[in-house]
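Prompt: For my understanding, could you write out one protein's sequence and backbone structure tokens?
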Amino acid sequence: MEKEQLDRINELGRAMKTRPLTDAEKAEQARLRAAYLREFRRKLRGESKEQGPSMVQTTLREAASHLKLLGRTAWQGEQLLLDWSAAGFDLCFRADRLTLDCLPYMGVQPVYVLAEIDGRAHRFALDRDRTSLTVEDLGQGAHRLRFIRLSEGGEPLLLTELRLYGPTTTLLPPPPPKERKIVILGDSITAGYGNLSHGQAGEYLTREQDVSVAYSYLTAQALDADYQIVAISGQGVVRNCHGEVGARLFEFFDHRSRSTREPYDHATFTPDAVVINAGTNDAVGKVSAADFEAGVSAFLDRVRSAYPRAHIFWLYGLMGNPYDSVLRALIERRRHTDSAIHYVPIASIGPDPEEIGVHWHPTRKAHVRAADLLTAAVKEALDW
């Protein structure tokens, strides 16, 4: 495919995040993506002849019945769209080698992903040029893949093709759903911003962000729960870290996709617990205590409306706690009529330099501490 055509795919992708595409633009986008896939499949057919008959080749859409989707995901034609932290899928299969392909990732920095097979983690960077990952020497027998997006970014990751190689290759039934479910909402802390960095100096790098070692994902794993992690760095309940309205938590809570802003049907995933970690950016954006309290109260009403039976936990304080007294008093008042709302304060990262990463964000060490605290609070409240 010509560079101009790839640039046009990228241009249309950016446009759809700010406005609805016209019918003509939608048709052009579909035509360009179809052309990309046709060219990609022609290359695959050539590779298939070289590899011999022992190969399974399928689009992600064709393999959908074998996938256990993780987090909030969406389909765009034949492609699986991942634009939330830790969004991805579990897959069981038989093969000695696995290859997964995507459309060119058009972000300024690479997107980092995790391909964990049988508990062994493989981390990959994908970008405009790197559109494929391979894990090989898996050995005979059945295997389990967990594939998730690790780093944030406004650009979607679009997965296209899956190939299996080996003497015996087949897709197996998906893993069963877990009995427990959790939704975790927040900002950069929840997404793991800078959690692999050391010291507050420097700039944000996607290679230093890994949601699989953020408190959000660690808590879901400790609770053995299926999860959704819905978070955007810099955003708040009332205003973002620049004092602007931005993409408020109240709004993107209802989005299935971060990039397309497709509405989300909350009835499709019913959590036992909802965790909210927000307020840091409102404080930086200089939101008054009164306005913050009103925003929190309205958002709690929205979450309770979406999930009438869930326990709701507000985690706060990891990057400072100027709204601590506001949250304590508000949640205590609400508990008179809704005992399934809980406040979980946590000590700030300030005193321990090993907990401070880029832009004063928590490191992996701090995330482990937060996960331990939150896991204990959820277990106690739900008697798990």
Notes: The longest helix spans residues 23-51. The longest strand covers residues 157-165. The chain has two domains: 55-176, 180-382. The domain at 180-382 is CATH 3.40.50.1110 (Rossmann fold).
